Amino acid sequence: ASTKDQDAGRAKADLERFVKERGLVVAAWYEENESGATLKRPELERLMRDCHPGDVLLVEQVDRLSRLNEADWEKLRTDLKSKQVRVVALDLPTSWQAVSDGDEFSRRMVDAINGMMLDMLAAIARKDYTDRRRRQSQGIEKAKAEGRMRGRKEDEKRNGKIAVLLRAGLSWSQIVEQEECSRATVAKIAKRLQTA
After folding, report:
1. Structural domain spans, the chain
2. CB-facing half-sphere around the CA of 59: CA atoms within 13 A
3. Which CATH superfamily is domain 8-142 in?
4. Each residue of 108-124: b (16+ CB within 10 Å) or e?
5. Maximum CA pair distance of the chain?
């Protein structure tokens, strides 16, 4: 599951069912709570270190692996290919053939088809991701423009105290400790004082 809100247990149950139906053995489980839009994911990195030629990477959905930008997807795809790891996704039935016994010709055909399908689905997943981010950003901007999204109100009393302490020459660290606020808050007030 790619976020803390998603149910990794449900995904794992689906993967276990797939494995059991085909009489396969799972070498290791990797549960990732990082975004599928980044290549810098601890569990993905561990998986890439652990895998061996001929291993199958079984994922619930292609987009768990492929919301990457084009350069990162190309790097991941190249790494998987160089390690001779095949990707099987529950939402990509053509990939299921990768865990079936077959002659070399059939396996090469399946690998070619799956490579093409994975590339297409990676492009679609990335487009969907960027479209959703863009729409979310537009919605936030619209809400701000309409006054529906203002953020948390400033603590004017505390900020006034911070301004007094800054003018009195206390260090930022002293102010942070005394007022139990963040350095960013002190920086914001200090900047206001400089521009005033």
Report:
1. 8-142, 156-195
2. 20
3. Resolvase, N-terminal catalytic domain (3.40.50.1390)
4. eebbeebeebbeebbee
5. 81
Is residue 68 exposed (0-12), middle (13-18) or buried (19+ Cβ within 10 Å)? Answer: buried
Tracing tokens 């400089």 back to the chain, one arrives at: 194
129-181: pLDDT as tens digits: 889 999 999 998 898 888 887 778 889 999 999 999 999 999 999 999 999 99
| Residue whose token pair is 């969907």 | 128
Ranges of the chain whose pLDDT falls below 70: 1-9, 36
Rounded to an integer, what distance in angstroms lies between the CA atom of residue 163 and that of residue 155? 12
Is 175:181 a contact under the CB 8 Å cutoff?
Answer: yes
Beta bridge mates, 58 = 88
Q: Are 87 and 77 in contact (CB under 8 A)?
A: no
* Pairing relationship of beta strands 86-89 and 56-59 according to DSSP bridges: parallel
Residue 51 phi, psi (nearest 5): -75, 155
